C-alpha cells in the first residue's frame, strides 16, 4: 500500500492532526477545504467567490498529490445557508462541468469562522 500526504502548512493541520489531502492506492482524499489563505484570512466575499477560492485550493492539493480535477469522482459541499445553492453550484459547475462527479450539498449550522459560508471536500481516483 502506498500512502502520501499533502500539507498546506496552515496551523489547523498541526493543531487538529490532519492533512490537506491523503493519497493512497490510486485515490486522493482532499479534506474539508475552506477559502482561507496561508495567513489564515478568509478569501472571497459571498458564496460564489468563496467556493471558487476553496476549489482553487482543492485543485492545488490534487495536483500536489498527482491527481487533477478530471480525476474527481465525489465532492461534498457544506454551506451555512442552503439558499446559496445556486451561487455555490455555479462555481462548482465551472470547475466540474465536464467531469460531473457525484456531489452532495448540505446546510450546516456554522463553520470554523463566522465569515465562512462554504467548505468543500473531494475524492479523486487516479487510474494510471
From TrEMBL:
Read off the Pfam families from this record.
Ribonuc_L-PSP
Recorded hits in Gene3D superfamilies, A to Z, give: RutC-like
PANTHER family recorded for this chain? BLR7761 PROTEIN, YJGH FAMILY PROTEIN
Stored SUPFAM superfamilies:
YjgF-like
Q: What is the protein's species of origin?
A: Halosimplex carlsbadense 2-9-1
Identify the domain of life.
Archaea
Q: What is this protein called?
A: Endoribonuclease L-PSP
